[in-house]
Every structure is written in C-alpha cells, then in structure tokens.
C-alpha cells in the first residue's frame, strides 16, 4: 500500500455582504479554502483543509510512494517542512482521513476512542452593539448552546464592557461566557501594539465582575512572563495558543504555567498526530484542551474528532455568528455543513476517517487557477 498522488487546490467564496471579522481591520470580501487530496494505490482519497500551504508542492516527493499509515513518520517530515515553508498541516489531516478509510475507523476512534460526540460553544466573530449582542446571545441560548464567546476590540474598552454587561443581563447565568481579547497576534497590515500586562489586568478585573469563564489571548503570544503573572493574579482562566506554531513553544507555555486553556488548531499547529500527544500533556498538567477552529468545516471536524477521541473537553469552538457567518459560508467546500443538534452537541458519527463529502461542483466554480 502506498501514496499514489497528492493534489492541492485553492478556492475562494465571494462574500456579499462582506464579513467584518472582529480581529481584522479590513472587512473580508472573500473566504479562501485550500483543499488537499491524498490518494492511495487503491483509489481511496483522504481530504484535508487548512492554510494555503505555500511551498509544500516542492516537498510532495517525500510522501509519494510511502505507506500512508505511517502517520508518525509523515508528521515528523511535515514538522521539518513547516520550518522551511508555510503551515503544511492540512496534509496531516488528509492522511488521517485516508488511514481511517483504509482501517475502517472514524478519526475519533483513531485518536483514542474516548467519545464520538462533543458539545460546542458558539464563537461570535462580529462586533455588534450591546442590544444586538444581547439578542444574539438569546438566540444562541434558544438554539441549545451552553456557552458563547464574545469578541473585544471595539474602539474603546468602555464599549466592549458595555456589550459584556448587556449580554450578561440578557441571559443571566444561562450561558457560560468567554471573552476573546485578540491580543496574541495581528493581521499583516495591523500595527496596533498588544496590551501590556497592566491593561490586561484591568480588563481581567472587569471580566471577573461579570463571571466570565475564560479570558482569551490577553497578551502577545510570546509574553510568557506576562501570561504566567496574569494567571496568578486573576481567578479567570487564561486561554491561548491558537496560532503558536512549534512543539518547543508549547513546552515553554506548559513549563512556565502560562495558560489554563490550550487552543492549538490541528490545521495550523502540529497536525492531528502531534496535537494528540500535546493534548495528553495538557490534560496531565490539569489544564483544558479545546482547539481553535476558525476555518472551514473540515478543520472543525478534524479538531472535534481529535479532542473527543483523546482527552475530551467541556465544549469546543463552533464559529457561528449569523447572518454574517453561517454554516453555509463557513463550510462551502462540503456537501453538508457541520451543525450541532438542538442541545449544541456535535455528533461525529462512525463513518471512516472524517466522514466528509466534498461539494465538487461548487469547488469547481470557486477554484482559483492563478
């Protein structure tokens, strides 16, 4: 058995109206998706999606002709490639999907078999007025979600605090609330400096007053001393790590006790193979593992399978903020968008691998050829 072919394609969905992502100073007028297909010599095809994987095409010969089932070997090669080129981890996801088909096992069983379902929290992505955010929170509660994440980053902190206060008043304790401060990284054109420790602590004190569950990315991702100090100085859980790239960086976060909640995304950091090992380390340290999932439904399912099957978690991120961000927009590469049930729980099923079907017609229409 061997890998016969690897194909990478790029797609863009026009967004009309645009999506005003809270972490981006430029409204998004298109949503990109990179699809990687790994085919074995019996015609089975594994699917992955993630970053554009710039530079990966020059290294595909390292996988062609190899046994697809040697996942640890492939993950080590991808880790080396990640140093020299873009984030290549969608290929690891595709290999998991292919191996699941070869073995007749769902990805969550491959990850450890601990569970085939996982509860979701609604992750908002738009800055709305206090009344509009309160209405959105009531909607999430009515749809069965147990938790919701609110984005900070408006023109002033006072505006952010007003939104949080209005949401808490609207839903009481019916929803667990998290706040994403979005200070860990910036878009390439955004030169605004991240918060200093003192400002992060000021925000933490206000979040404590509203019984917020976790405070996400309150400082730059490399401010290890600040995160450790903030974790000691507030009763909030401190979350982060979504765009941290390398294994040694996560080891530093663990050793210096920087975070309570670790959020690496399998399609951005380490892939499913290495991320499973990290999840076990995080759980052994008494911390929470619950990945970032702000891509499309393929990455969302990869993270959900990995987490549910290995260490489990209270709830995993579900990007969902209609009308600007809907399952149909988010999951345009798929025939069926990913949706939880009316209790906010995502049933992963028992189909081999990730159990996904691509919408080939729509992918053909959205394909970028140059």
Tell how many strands the DSSP assignment holds: 12
Question: What is the average of the pLDDT values?
Answer: 97
Multimerization status: single chain
Largest sheet: 9 strands, mixed
Number of domains: 2
The poorly predicted ranges are: none
Decide which structural class fits the backbone: alpha/beta
* Element-by-element helix/strand order: EEEHHHEHEHEHEHEHEHEHEHEH
Distance between the termini: 34 Å
What is the fourth-level CATH superfamily of the largest domain? Enolase-like C-terminal domain
Tally of helical runs: 12
Radius of gyration, Cα only, in angstroms? 20 Å
Relative helix content: 25-40%
Strand content: 15-25%
Question: What is the CATH topology descriptor of the largest domain?
Answer: TIM Barrel
CATH C-level name of the largest domain: Alpha Beta
Under the CATH scheme, which architecture of the largest domain would be assigned? Alpha-Beta Barrel
Task: Assign an overall shape.
Answer: globular
């Amino acid at each position: 058995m061997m890998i016969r072919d690897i194909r990478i394609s790029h797609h863009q969905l026009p967004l009309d109206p645009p999506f005003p992502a809270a972490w981006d100073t430029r409204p998004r007028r298109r949503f990109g998706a990179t699809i990687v297909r790994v085919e074995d010599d019996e015609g089975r095809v594994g699917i992955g999606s993630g970053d554009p994987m710039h530079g990966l095409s020059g290294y595909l010969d390292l996988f062609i002709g190899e046994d697809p089932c040697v996942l640890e070997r492939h993950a080590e090669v991808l880790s080396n490639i990640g140093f020299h080129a873009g984030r290549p981890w969608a290929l690891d996801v595709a290999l998991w999907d292919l191996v699941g088909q070869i073995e007749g096992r769902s990805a969550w069983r491959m990850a450890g078999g601990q569970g085939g379902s996982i509860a979701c929290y609604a992750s908002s992505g738009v800055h709305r007025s206090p009344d509009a955010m309160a209405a959105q929170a009531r909607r999430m509660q009515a749809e069965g979600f147990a938790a919701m994440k609110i984005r900070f980053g408006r023109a002033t902190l006072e505006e952010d605090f007003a939104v949080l206060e209005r949401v808490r008043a609207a839903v009481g304790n019916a929803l667990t609330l998290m706040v994403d401060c979005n200070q860990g990284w910036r878009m390439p054109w955004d030169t605004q400096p991240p918060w200093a420790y003192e400002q992060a602590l000021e925000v933490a004190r206000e979040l404590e007053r509203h019984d917020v569950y976790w405070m996400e990315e309150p400082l730059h991702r490399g401010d290890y001393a600040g995160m450790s100090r903030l974790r000691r100085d507030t009763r909030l859980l401190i979350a982060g790590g979504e765009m941290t790239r390398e294994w040694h960086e996560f080891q530093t976060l663990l050793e210096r006790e920087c975070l309570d909640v670790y959020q690496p995304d399998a399609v951005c950091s380490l892939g499913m193979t290495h991320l499973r090992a990290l999840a076990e380390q995080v759980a052994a340290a008494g911390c929470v593992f619950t990945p970032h999932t702000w891509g499309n439904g393929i990455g969302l399912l990869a993270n959900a399978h990995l987490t549910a099957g290995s260490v489990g978690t209270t709830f995993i991120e579900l990007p969902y903020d209609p009308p600007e961000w809907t399952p149909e927009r988010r999951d345009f590469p798929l025939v069926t968008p990913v949706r939880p049930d009316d209790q906010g729980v995502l049933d992963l099923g028992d189909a081999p691998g990730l159990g996904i079907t691509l919408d080939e017609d729509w992918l053909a229409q959205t394909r970028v050829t140059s």
